[in-house]
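Appendix B. Chain record.
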Amino acid sequence: MIGGNAPVLVGIGLAAQREDDAARAVDALALMTRATLAAGQDCGNPALLRQLDRILVPKGRWSHTDPARDIARSVGADGAVTVLSTVGVLQQSLIADACNRIADGQIGAALVTGGDAGYRILRSRIAGVQLPSPPPGGAPDVTLAPHEELRHEAELRADLRMPVSLYAIIESAFRARHGWAMDAHRDQLAALYSRFSAVAAANPAAWTRQRLNAAEIRTESQRNPMQAFPYTKALCSSWNVDQAAALLFCSASKAEELGIPPDRWVFPWASTESNHMVPVSARGQLDACPGARIAGQAATEPFGLTPADLGLVDLYSCFPVAVEVYASELGLDMERDLTVTGGMPFAGGPYNNYVLQATCRMAELLRAGDPRPGLVASVSGILTKQGFGLWSTRPPQGGYRFADVSDAVARITSTVAVDPDASGAGSVVGYCVLHDRAVPPRGIAVIDLDGGGRAVATSADAEPMERMQREECCGMRVDVRAGRFAPSVDQGAAAL
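Structure tokens predicted for this chain:
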């Protein structure tokens, strides 16, 4: 029997536009509203939107102060509590908030919606058009924000501000741990994302529905420049997209009351998350993510599931190492399909909203008949927080489960003290060469110092940067002075 308070995903909505004239394009709020209305139609009874008790929105690249309030007015849910989460909060946490409150009987219906209009922003910059600012608004009823900083001071001093450089550093450590040759590793990444592009080509909602071969993804070109070695543009999230998604939840009893057809129902079996935050440079193991393993086990093990039991899987795919590390921690075969959308470079990665897009696609495919549970992974920050949603068209045996495993992750996570003013000899544990059209390339390295502790340092010297892109330099001996590193003269920068 399905419990009366069992949370059910009954409506999904997607909205997108590709308007080259920024003055004619609508903003992110309009896209979110369209997605919300589409979710109401999808559930079979749009009247559910008027009964929303809670509307949750993850912050995007927009300045609306309380977008949930505007959406509530648009659908006639004036009494809904509005929630806004800032960057650094898992998108899965908003899904969990809705499901937990429904399961506890606190509310009967909730909406989670988000979106962005990055393509509109890009086109306005190209055309030199000033986009109008939204009118002043009030504050949301609830604001969710992370408790810690995403970046270490040493990372900020080294100008490690863009996610691509930090992910590339993690990628180098992951490659070194597995002993992969540089060229072979780059071939692996290109082949993986070529398969992702094939999935996107079959996804009607994907931003780019063109399959790319591995050579096109791996090879640098004017259209596919290097971003942070080894990542070309085709290996990076595409955030200049105009996309929105909406997830409409209610209790099983409300769904029955409103006559929502059972073929619309998708059950959340579990929502799990780790919110233990450690900046990249302070992680004892750059190439590991224990939070993904523990949160993943918390989602699957209560139902007796192994990785082989999962049907559809979508691993967060902002950059390849996020896929690699999650697959490694979960025990998933890298040769299986690891995305349902086509991934963030191809399906599109609207700022702080991709998990909602992926969950909509997961629901579509589950409704189409796959009987096995599907898993959607969530990431916040630089692999800083980890989360999972487990979904099925069958109700979960024993009911919906939620687990916050932050304390368990904190107990087993090793950290290293990072000194922004450190100097001395040490060994590189992770690095990248950051390419930026506005400034010359520069090497950035995380270094374990011989005397203990860690440093983050940079180099603009041609020889080390050329070598860092030609051969493995994790283990390279370097000297650090005033935030700069150079190969150690006495050991010739030989890799250990």
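Further analysis of this model is presented in Appendix C.
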